[in-house]
Design goal:
This protein is α/β, with parallel strands linked by helices. Helix content is about 45%, strand content about 15%.
Length: about 350
């Protein structure tokens, strides 16, 4: 049986239906435009993509400090070059291993995602011919991290080894962002993959919440054409809040059950271990994978220990003061004064 596509309404998603996002991403895609020069500090981008908190950044930095020999940690200097483009404003300098790294909160989140993916599926699988398909690539930040890690490993992935499905208005922005680093991806459209239902390929599908912000025909087209044929999947999902409340939407558990019914053998990962407090609590995100071996998942979970009570309090104080607009150095002084300075 062949999966034939009818014309799909690409606006049937949270960002696709956001006229401001569509218009801005289209304008920012022009390389010499003022919008592109500073696109990562625009209010629309800050809300849609760059909303990761200082708390999340600090937790991710602690993770990288703990695993100094991890391939992602060893790639951080190269990964942080992402923040030379688009003039991001949310930067933080931290010592990781023997080096000082200046990195944006969102870039650090993308790096942590790839550490999760590598640890759950195995580095040998991911960087030896497995095609990566990203659903909803934002401005290309997550794909850029993939290529950075590949370069660190001495790999040079072919164009077809990383493909992106996104709104047409986002393609030029993604292309121009990646051009700055000599990287490129294959842009694909629904309907181009005429594969029999259920056929497996050596393909990893990833989605950082984008899939779970869809509903109706758009969602089911992605599920049947992109997710179903793949052999590996990594999904940060918020179906409950961004899909289910709308006509044609589904819940997190309904997505999981669909994967079970179609023989994908999915696993819920402990989001408290694999995601930051903000992603797992405030954003309400869950993490679902399929195709990962249980031994890999268990070993990955063991390296992601929950932070102690005192450290969690410190993180929350940092987050509280960052929301009040304090400079990060003033925040650190405040935390030291409140928690580590002896009163006379």
């Amino acid at each position: 049986m062949i999966w034939f596509m009818k014309k799909i309404d690409m606006s049937n998603s949270a960002l696709g239906s956001n006229v401001s996002w569509v218009d801005f991403s289209e304008k920012a895609g022009h390389k010499n435009s003022q919008e592109f020069a500073e696109f990562r500090r625009h209010p629309i981008m800050l809300k849609a993509i760059e909303g990761t908190t200082y708390l999340s950044l600090m937790q991710n930095i602690f993770f990288f400090r703990k695993l100094e020999d991890h391939i992602v940690t060893r790639s951080l200097e190269k990964i942080s070059s992402s923040d030379m483009i688009g003039a991001p404003i949310r930067l933080f300098t931290a010592k990781v291993g023997s080096k000082y790294i200046t990195i944006n909160r969102t870039t650090a989140k993308y790096a942590k995602n790839w550490s999760n993916i590598i640890d759950c599926f195995g580095i040998d699988i991911l960087f030896n011919g497995t095609k990566v398909t990203e659903i909803g690539a934002g401005y290309g930040g997550e794909s850029k991290v993939f290529f950075d890690i590949a370069c660190k490993l001495g790999k040079t992935p072919d164009l077809g080894e990383y493909e992106v499905y996104d709104l047409p208005s986002s393609e030029l922005l993604i292309r121009h962002f990646l051009d700055n680093f000599g990287y490129s991806v294959a842009f694909k459209k629904l309907g181009e993959n005429k594969l029999p239902l259920g056929r497996s390929t050596k393909n990893l599908v990833i989605s950082n919440a984008a899939l779970s912000e869809m509903r109706g025909d758009l969602l089911w087209s992605y599920l049947n054409e992109i997710v179903l044929p793949a052999s590996f999947g990594y999904f940060i999902v918020n179906f409950d809040s961004h899909s289910k409340p709308y006509e044609g939407g589904i819940s997190n558990s309904e997505f999981y059950d669909w994967l079970v019914e179609n023989g994908k053998n999915p696993r819920w990962l402990n989001e408290k271990k694999f995601l930051t407090n903000f992603d797992s609590s405030a954003a309400g995100s869950k993490l679902i994978v399929f195709g990962a071996e249980d031994d890999f998942i268990q070993r990955a979970a063991q390296t992601r220990v929950n932070h102690g009570f005192i450290l969690r309090i410190v993180f929350r104080v940092i987050e509280y003061y960052s929301q009040k607009g304090l400079d990060i150095y003033e925040i650190i002084k405040t935390v030291k004064r409140k928690f580590f300075c002896r009163k006379e």
